[in-house]
Amino acid sequence: MAKTSPVRHASRSLIWLGVLVVALAAALTSGVLWGSATVAPKLGLDLQGGTEVILTPALEGNSQITSDELNQAVSIIRQRVNASGVSEATVSTQGNTNIVVDVPGRLDDATKQRIEASSKMELRPVLLAQSPATTSFTGQDGKQTPYPTPAPTLANTPTAKPTDASDTNWVTPYLQAKYDAFDCASLKTATTNVAPADEPLVTCDDAGQTKYLLGPVEVQGSDITNATAGMISSQQGVNTGQWGVNLTFNSAGAKAFDKVSQRLNGYYAAAQSAGTSDPRSQFAFVLDGRVLEAPQMQGVITGNTSQITGNFTQESAQTLANQLKFGALPVSFKVQSSNTISATLGSAQLLSGMIAGAIGLLLVFIYTLIQYRTLGFVTIFSLVIAAALSYLTIALLSWQMGYRLSLAGVAGLIVAIGFTADSFIVYFERIRDELREGRGLESAVEAGWKRARRTVYAAKTTNLLAAVVLYIFAVGDVQGFAFTLGLTTILDVIIVVLFTHPIMQLFARTEFFASGHPLSGLDPTALGAVYRGAGQFRPASTVGSAKLASSSREAAKRQTIAERKAAELAAAGTRRNGKDD
Questions:
Q1: Which residues form the SecDF P1 head subdomain domain (predicted)?
Q2: Distance between CA atoms of 18 and 472, rounded to whole angstroms?
């Protein structure tokens, strides 16, 4: 029963590996057939070229942008266009004022909007809301009549001083007329639609379906420290199956939002008691003069976290989270120019990188075959499977998270060949060590794995930590290299656990390897298995003199310092006993 256990374990591991490969291949195939995925991974800016967008600050009067503001803007825009750090987009400064954004490939609409949406993020309370948004009303004669354009003579000063940002005293006759006449379609062609932070704002949502009159700014977008999309849970902790956006505020934002939530929740409770609705129970997230979302306040927020709920999909929730997280710029920017740029390296360098990788693989194959003979084919098959998993994973990441393979990423893949081969060599050498100590092959495979996996896990953890540190503290190509290195490190562990070790468990039960065939790479005699440890050797009569001499020399090479000292002490004791006799 005990002998069949490793075989069963090996079979299960290989089945799981097969399921993983099939699942990745099926996901990529479905993405190619019914989605926007491509069979080949997307290439980075240095290999494919792309689009260059130059942003210039929109300043009023003689004001100037400071270097700190410019650096802060670069950091935020970099997060907008390259939130995952693997799209290989670059953001840099030009002179003392402009920002240059280089995006691989064609500039899609979503990325363009993230770049151009450079106004400050603001949180304003809702005073009035009208849906659907129209620019006309029904008169007493039943006909549709356009709302009048606000007359300059209409009063625009509150009759009474507003007590807070939700006070309806903000709604002056001029603002009411402006709100009535406002056409949401005008936002599509308007270059700007902003108002001072201490004044109301007339605007619409992105879809142009709802028109709003908003009060003054109460919380700045810069007070949002984090925003993430996630599934909503009930008070009992049960997943509701709906998507929402989780917000985290800094101390100033949390204090201000706490005050706002108490007031708006009061409007919500009063409206619920009366069986009506009150737009003043809503607060609006405003970016670039447009309302991203205007949820109701249905409770008092006392901490620094909040949650936005609504009719979200996963995509819309993630989009809103990115807009809220990366929306607050210190200065507004406008697009000065947009140009197509050519690849800096191109296909020739990509071909050179692929040739270098092929040469590296070939050298590893040759070395393992010379060093381990037939056992080297396990390394070759393991590397082939690792390459297939890496390719499928990278292609899927290109589709799902915008991963771009640059020359730095190619370098990460080449470096991973050596790291992956190290794992196999450590394992094989541990098996050989167990054979030298006189174990049978099946026992040596299991004992060698127990010893090797600690070394493999420690080495891979070190590699992964290095990749994570590089990814966090670097930008651009270095981030792409770190991401590729970390990904291949994880895949390396998967291959060793689900393929290399199970294959060795199965091979250990074959006659070719179990008998120690000279071509197997696991010949106990050739490895010096006559050495039993602690300075003891088998009697010379058990093996031929030539093989004994060769094995003894090999065993002597493998002895540790402690073992050699123990052998010398034992030999000295034997000589003394002989003399005493």
A1: 205-331
A2: 33
- In whole angstroms, give the CA distance from residue 71 to residue 396: 33
Q: What is the pLDDT of residues 218-276, one digit of tens each?
A: 988 778 888 888 888 776 777 777 888 888 888 888 888 888 888 888 888 888 888 88
What region, left, alpha or beta, does residue 182 occupy, with left being phi > 0 and alpha being psi -120 to 50 degrees? beta
Q: Could you count the other beta carbons within 10 Å of the beta carbon of residue 327? A: 26
Give me 575's structure tokens: 């000589």
pLDDT tens digits, residue range 381-398?
998 999 899 999 999 988
Residues of the chain with pLDDT under 50: 1-3, 531-548, 550-551, 554, 557-558, 560-561
Answer whether 0.85 is exceeded by the pTM: no
The pair phi, psi for residue 241, each rounded to 5°, is 80, 5
Instruction: Judge whether 420 and 383 are in contact, CB under 8 Å.
Output: yes
**What is the SS3 assignment for 320-371?**
HHHHHHCCCCCCCEEEEEEEEECCCCCHHHHHHHHHHHHHHHHHHHHHHHHH
Distance CA 87, CA 104 (A): 8
Q: Is 91 helix (H, G, I), strand (E, B) or coil?
A: strand
* Phi, psi (deg, nearest 5) at residue 544: -70, 155
> Per-residue pLDDT tens for 17-56?
999 999 999 999 998 898 878 888 888 777 777 888 888 8
| Run of H or E including 460 | helix 441-473
Contact 416, 484 (CB under 8 A): yes
Cα(271)–Cα(250) distance, integer angstroms = 31
Specify the pLDDT at position 499. Answer: 93
Residue 19 DSSP code: H
**CB–CB of 45/89 below 8 Å?**
yes
Backbone φ and ψ for 299, nearest 5 degrees, come out as 180, 165
| CB crowding 470-484: b at 16 or more within 10 Å, else e | bbeeebbbebbbbbb
